[in-house]
Write a structure and sequence with these properties.
alpha+beta
């Protein structure tokens, strides 16, 4: 029987994420994410199967974009990716559930995520997980995308 676990990534293990996504193909992104991990601005969670890294998702505290991050109120979900051979097994959904729970433990009231409009599978997953408010509908150099919001805690009045 396989052992499935979600762990918090340590900076020393960051290079192991290349098992999930091709870090050599995106060296600037890999370097930026590593810098954010080391600085404490990014927490990366890894889905493991028998110790192998097969999925990744991160929480980002500050992104210089108030749609994505509002200090102490809204946190950003970044880089949900599951190794191709492990897709359609519920791993992405479990990773999303995990980061929503972590955000709630950190006392955030809202959590945001960006998704390309052409990524219909991810869009359906996020909507199923409660990211049901479109806070931005636009386009960048990568194409059209949405910024979605999920409310995870109501403000205490």
């Amino acid at each position: 029987m396989q052992k499935h676990e979600i762990i918090q990534l340590k900076p020393d293990d960051y290079s192991r994420c290349s098992n999930i996504w091709d870090m050599k193909r995106s060296p600037d992104m890999a370097e930026r994410f590593y810098g954010e991990l080391v600085s404490g601005n990014r927490i990366i969670y890894i889905y493991t199967v028998d110790g192998d890294y097969v999925g990744e998702v991160a929480l980002v505290f500050e992104k210089n974009d108030p749609d994505y991050c509002i200090p102490g109120r809204r946190i950003y979900v970044s880089r949900l990716v599951v190794k191709e051979t492990f897709r359609n097994q519920g791993i992405g959904g479990r990773l999303i559930d995990h980061v929503v729970n972590q955000a709630a433990k950190l006392d955030y009231q809202e959590i945001s995520i960006g998704v390309d409009k052409v990524n219909e599978g991810a869009l359906r997953l996020y909507q199923r997980k409660g990211f049901d408010e479109v806070i931005f509908d636009g386009e960048d150099k990568a194409g059209p995308y949405y910024k979605l919001l999920k409310r995870i805690q109501e403000e205490t009045q």
